Amino acid sequence: MEEVRTYLPHWLWPGDDRSRAEIEDEIEEELRLHMDLLTQANQQAGMDASEARQAAQQRFGDIEAVRQQCVAIKRGDVPMLSRIQAVLTVLLLVAVLIVGWRQWVTNAATAQFMNQTTSFLKEIRQDMQGLREGLQPPTEPGQPMAEAPVVTGAVAGVVRNESGEPIQGARVLAVFKSWPGGSYSQEGRTMVTDAQGRFRFDDAAPLNRKRGIQIAVFADGFAFQSRYEFSDSEAKPQDLQDFDFQLRPSIPVVLQLLPSYDQRVTTPGAYSGPIYNRTTFRPGERQTADGESHRVYRENIELIEVESDEQGRVTLPWFAAGDTAEIAVRRGSELITSPLLVIDQLGRTELKRQGQEILTPVTESP
Amino acid sequence: MASKKEQNLLQGSLDLLILNALSGGAKHGYGVARHIQAASDEFLKIEEGSLYPALHRMERRGWIAAEWGTSEANRRAKYYRLTRTGKAQLKVEVAAWRDMAEAIGKVLGAAPTRTLAAEG
Fold it and tell me: C-alpha dihedral over B110, B114, B116, B119, to 10 degrees?
């Protein structure tokens, strides 16, 4: 308490809040003792009683004035009401600053800006990876400049469930990277698996050139998986036909957009009417409990997006128990937020780093 | 009535004397007065009653803390002691006083020399 006092102006510190009479008595007692001790000393010095008292009074001064001064100091120099008012004003200012900062600066602007920037940087990173993989040393002197013609091969695989049975109708999102003539090219293609769970992209990737193959597989009732292969060594046609997947069951994650979502993210004039069902959800990188990492490229991702209903409720079908996954919440082309979804082994869901509270997990009671 | 400046100067030196008196241990008001008197009889030509407003003001500022105890005469007496803040304040005031005394000393020391030079 002593420490606090040091940093506060002393007039702000509350005075003695006992009754005036009590304080007066106390001061009276204190001053009386002084007078009596002075008188006593004078008597010991040889004065008689009345002479000694008179000399003491002279030495002490106007006892009544001193007492009034002391009482005033003790009760506080500034009236209590002014003091309370000063404290309340300061508190109010601080509260307004905090609320204002959180509401307008941190949430609306920063969160949105950070989300956009993060997703933009991720896209740049993907592209940069493609460019980096394309870097090669200049041709050695004395070597022919002409290279052998490009031979392309098919990329194929089979999608099965945990017990090895084929899954028909699984959607396969493929991205093929190549570096024709030293430049970088990226092609997105999609396919649905047949009755045997098979997919096959003909003429998809160069066999005798540097290539990157990204395949992501989505099937109803299963958590999505992906695989990325990069190589610059020559391949035989059958080498690129082992993109086999064994999917594990998913658990549906139900999320609810909160009413505050409307107010916070609607760009004035951009839309009219209910906007919940214009909001789409995309999966981002998915980390499984075993530490595997699966990701989707932005090519053709629209095919697997889901949309919230008119009540702002959405069911995400892509994840499994134990996953940690990023999702992107969009309205049209605008990224609203990209929270991290953490699903425990019992399927309970938690949303992290939302920035603005616009989304909440829903626990379905049976 | 003394001018405002004079009062401030008096009050400032009174605070310093009280803090100094209490630095030797807790005392009641009478004890403080006797301690100061022993050090400077001249100064205590001012009324001893003026010690009390100063004591109460310093208590409010947190420089000193008060506690009821029993005096030598077996009567209830209020004893004041220095707080941590008070000890720091004493150092500040002593330093300020020394600076002031030194400055005044220089002025006083310089004056006769100049007079002599003028005469010579």
Answer: -160
